Amino acid sequence: MLIRTATLQDLDSIASVESECFPPAEAASRERFEDRLKHYPTHFWLMFDDEKLIAFLDGFVTDEQDLTDEMFARAELHNESGKWQMLFGLNTLPEYRNRGCAGELINRAIKDSREQGRLGLVLTCKERLIHYYAKFGFVNEGMSESNHGGAVWYQMRLTF
Ligand SMILES: CC(C)(COP(=O)(O)OP(=O)(O)OC[C@H]1O[C@@H](n2cnc3c(N)ncnc32)[C@H](O)[C@@H]1OP(=O)(O)O)[C@@H](O)C(=O)NCCC(=O)NCCS
Predict the structure, then answer these.
(1) d(CA 133, CA 64)
(2) CA of 81 to the centre of ligand 1 (A)
(3) 99 Cβ inside 6 Å of ligand 1
(4) Could you state, in order of their start, the residue ranges of all structural domains in the chain?
(5) Atom nearest to 106 CA in ligand 1
(6) pTM to 2 decimals?
(7) In CATH, 2-159 is 3.40.630.30
(8) Over the stretch 52-63, which tens digit does the pLDDT of each residue have?
(9) pLDDT digits (tens, 9 = 90+) for 61-108
(10) Whose CB among 29, 36, 83, 123 lies 3.0–4.6 Å from 75's, allowing a Cys bridge?
(11) Ligand 1 center–CA 35 separation, angstroms
């Protein structure tokens, strides 16, 4: 499966995968992805089965230590020379799950962030996924201040 970064041309497929993977209260809108793709297309990791987008991961780079709700909404806060790679969204289409697609994307994001000289990566997730991210070296830092979509989120960090 091919993994590559994004361009604005990928907008429709990204928005469509997102809406298949998240409930409406949590899914990022097409407009939000358009904004993100304008500010940080090279911090999207897309996985394709032939021409079809089946999974993706995205998040911007910042000097801020902690991931906040404001970051999800304001792509212009991206700072290409920032210390931390934030991870905002991870999605695999339902019919492609449980075969390591998301894992490959996470490993690619970790590799790229290391090569770019970042301090590490930060994400927020629901409790049920803490064990999953721990397998890649992310450490749980406890409950995040985020209440995105009305849910409880935990912040996890992988430091190089
Ligand atoms: C969470 C999500 C991205 C995982 O995607 P995925 O591509 O299925 O992820 P992986 O295949 O890497 O891992 C999923 C499970 O499959 C297992 N797995 C990985 N490779 C495997 C393989 N080759 N064969 C069988 N199982 C495998 C993993 O160990 C993991 O199991 P675990 O949770 O018990 O540890 C996907 O379920 C999704 O899009 N969910 C909805 C959106 C969401 O909640 N995103 C996360 C927001 S923080």
Answers:
(1) 21
(2) 30
(3) yes
(4) 2-159
(5) 12
(6) 0.95
(7) yes
(8) 999 999 999 999
(9) 999 999 999 999 999 999 999 999 999 999 999 999 999 999 999 999
(10) 36
(11) 27
